[in-house]
Amino acid sequence: MRILIVGCGRVGSRLATEFVAEGHRVSMVDQRQEAFRRLPDRFPGQLVLGTGIDEDVLRSAGIESADVFIAVTEDDNTNIMAAQIAQVIYRVPKVILRIYDPERAEVYRGLGLTVICPTRTVADMIEEQVRQDRPVRVSG
Amino acid sequence: MYIIVVGGGKVGYYLTKTLVNEGYEVFLIEKNPAKVQVYRDRFGAIVMQGDGAEVATLAAAGAGRADVVIAVTGDDEDNLVICQMARERFGVRRTIARVNNPKNEELFRKLGIDVTVSQTNVILSIIEQQIPERPFVHLMALRHADLAIVEAKVSEDSPVIHQPIWQIELPPEAIITAILRHGDLIIPTGQTVIEPGDELIIVTKQQREAELRELITGPAA
User: Which of A47, A97, A101, B174 is most buried, by the most CB atoms less than 10 A from its CB?
Assistant: First the structure.
């Protein structure tokens, strides 16, 4: 598969490393050169310096032939716009994005995007742990 | 009419000021607390500090009863999301976004933003209209059906001079709607003969512009 990832942070670089190990062709887009340092030495994927909301940048990262598009920059709105370019203009078959703000996540899920909302996921997990391991306190 | 402006840069500030003077009910949302303080001194309580893409901010600004939301921050991704959140979450009927990168105009329209304003394109079209030598000028794009209004100046060596309009093989989706001749406006018929110096105002499908240009100004040198 051809996988295009916008945002080479902790999540983006980890995904890229795993996907290339599985034999996929990976392109990374980030606007900070130093972000690519998170990738392993001799990373075989393509690195493109630029913003993920610029069509020229996305085209040079191969968006036209991408099977999967992943937007995981630190900025919700950048991820939202990048994902919509991929979905609406280039019709990439699978588009996944991260949105921290649960309210925004809900709205864009409603618009047909595959949204991962870490805030909601982490809160749910913690809540579950709290319920499971609730300490029993006997008050006297 | 209740209008919410998001983004208190120069555009947002003067827009708010103008709309207030025109008598509209206006509310301005700006992120930077220092700017908010300055604008509060000028406009009073209609200025709020906050992120216009956040539901809580839009709700506090009364987006539920807003007729128009105008996003004029310096970041296109923010303007897009502000307009989409206003429409999807609060049912705002009319959303207007400033487009900083002219390439995003098309995208924003496809994503349902009602009106986009690109300063770059506006300035470009003003420049083009001011330069009299340009024989073919794109005046404006009409959003629906991909129509455009173009102005074509007919030169001495134009292939169409001294011809009545019915003889000119215009592209099928183009029509000469007006002719400016020596400062007079002529509404043409099929019998109207094109003369050198005429300025033709043509409504055309946008994809026919290049064809039309070649027809009137001759093949590109």
Answer: A97
Give residues with Cβ within 8 angstroms of B163, minimum separation 6: B193, B194
What end-to-end distance do the CA atoms of chain A give, in Å? 63
pLDDT digits (tens, 9 = 90+) for B119-159: 777 776 766 666 555 677 777 777 666 888 888 888 888 88
- For A2-132, the fitting CATH number among 3.40.630.30, 3.40.640.10, 3.40.50.720, 3.40.50.620 is 3.40.50.720
Same domain, B20 and B111: yes
Distance from CA of B75 to the nearest CA of A (A): 10
C-alpha–C-alpha distance, residues B10 and B38, integer Å:
13
Q: Kindly state whether residue B202 falls inside one of the protein's structural domains.
A: yes
Is residue A134 scored above 70 in pLDDT?
A: no
Residue of A nearest to B101 (CA): A54
Task: Let me know if residue B212 belongs to a domain.
Answer: yes
CA B207 to chain centre: 18
A78 in contact with chain B, both atoms CB, cutoff 8 A: yes
Q: A35-68: per-residue pLDDT in tens? A: 999 999 999 999 999 999 999 999 999 999 999 9
Containing domain of residue B179, as a range?
Answer: 131-217
Q: What angle separates helix A76-84 from helix A102-110, to the nearest 10 degrees? A: 10
State the nearest Cα–Cα gap between A32 and chain B, in angstroms: 18
Nearest to A104 among B85, B101, B111 (CB): B85
CB B103 within 8 A of CB A59: no
Distance of CA A88 to the CA centre of its chain: 18
Q: What DSSP line would sit under B28-73, residue for residue?
A: EEES-HHHHHHHHHHH-TTEEES-TTSHHHHHHTTGGG-SEEEE--
Return the structure tokens found at A35.
């972000």
